[in-house]
Design goal:
Blueprint (H helix, E strand, L loop, with lengths): L7 H20 L6 H8 L3 H8 L2 H29 L5 H20 L4 H13 L5 H23 L6 H19 L1 H8 L6 H26 L1
Length: 220
C-alpha cells in the first residue's frame, strides 16, 4: 500500500520546529532570530508567523513538545506504576528501579535526545517564560519517584532530604546525557550502544537499591 504524501502545512510546521529546537538549544531564545530559524528550516519568515504567531510562541511550542515527548515515552513504559502506585516497600523499590531504568531508555538511549538535552539544559541555566512548562513535567516525574522512594525506605515524601535523594538518583541518569562526550571519551566508545545501556541499567538498579538501603539504615 503506497504511503500517502505528507501534507505541506504539517511538513512546514515540522521543519520549523526541528530548526527551532536546534537553534534555541545552540543559541538560546535571545540569541536566535526568526530569520535564523526560517533560513535553517528553508521557509520564509511569514511561514513562522502563520504557524506560530511569533518567536515566543514558537519557543513555547518547542518546550511543550520536547518535554511532553519525554513524559509520554516514560508514561508509555511505566503507566501502571504511575497510575496505580505500589503499596508496600518491596513493590515500591521494584517500581523505583523500573522508573529509573525507563529514564535510561528514554533519555540516554536515543541519539536524538542530544538535541533535546541542549534545549533543556539551556532552559535550566537561563530560565525563560517556558520554564514552567518544563518544570511541570519534571515535577510530576520527580514527585512520582519521591513517593516511591519514601514508601520503599520509610521516609517522609515531603521532606527535603527525600526530595534530594531522588534528585541524586535521577541525576546519575541525566549525567550520562549531559556529559556524553566525556563519558564516551573515557570509555573509549563512539556512541552509547546496546551493550553499554544494558550495563548502565543494571548498575542504576544496584545504585537505587543501595541508596534505599542507606536511607533505611539512616532511620535506625
Amino acid at each position: 500500500m503506497q504511503k500517502k504524501p505528507e501534507r505541506a502545512p504539517e511538513a512546514t510546521r515540522e521543519r520549523i520546529m526541528d530548526a527551532a529546537l536546534d537553534l534555541f538549544g545552540e543559541r538560546g531564545l535571545t540569541g536566535t532570530t526568526v530569520r535564523d530559524i526560517a533560513q535553517r528550516a528553508k521557509v520564509n519568515v511569514a511561514a513562522i508567523s502563520y504557524h506560530f504567531g511569533g518567536k515566543d510562541e514558537l519557543y513555547r511550542a518547542v518546550a511543550t513538545t520536547v518535554i511532553g515527548s519525554i513524559e509520554a515515552r516514560v508514561r508509555h513504559r511505566v503507566a501502571p506504576l504511575l497510575d496505580n502506585p505500589p503499596r508496600d516497600p518491596a513493590a515500591a523499590l521494584k517500581a523505583l528501579e523500573d522508573l529509573v531504568e525507563t529514564m535510561v531508555e528514554v533519555i540516554v538511549g536515543p541519539e536524538e535526545m542530544r538535541r533535546v538535552a541542549r534545549f533543556i539544559i539551556r532552559e535550566q541555566m537561563q530560565p525563560t517564560f517556558a520554564f514552567e512548562i518544563l518544570f511541570g513535567v519534571m515535577s510530576r516525574l520527580h514527585g512520582a519517584a519521591t513517593r516511591l522512594l519514601a514508601l520503599a525506605a520509610g521516609l517522609d515524601p515531603e521532606a527535603k532530604e527525600t526530595m534530594l535523594r531522588v534528585f541524586l538518583i535521577l541525576g546519575q541518569v541525566l549525567f550520562l546525557r549531559i556529559a556524553e562526550a566525556a563519558v564516551l571519551r573515557r570509555l573509549q566508545l563512539k556512541r552509547y550502544d546496546e551493550a553499554l545501556l544494558t550495563d548502565v541499567k543494571a548498575l542504576v538498579r544496584q545504585n537505587v537499591r543501595a541508596m534505599v538501603l542507606a536511607a533505611r539504615e539512616g532511620r535506625t
